[in-house]
Known about the structure:
The chain is of the alpha+beta class. The protein has helices spanning about 20-30, 50-55, and strands at about 5-15, 40-45. Helix 1 links the parallel strand 1 and strand 2. About 5% of the residues are buried.
Amino acid sequence: MAQRTPISAGNWKMHLSDAAAGDLCRALLAGGIDRVAGERVVLAPGFLQLGQVRGH
């Protein structure tokens, strides 16, 4: 059987402004969320915030 990979997901949808969505992504990356060993990290912004978080 294949080894499962844990997933940590965050879904904030319509609870942040465009600027706050970008700030949240920058803060999470600065805190090392992209380096969690052995896990995949998924962030799910609202459609209108995709432009603010693209490339982070």
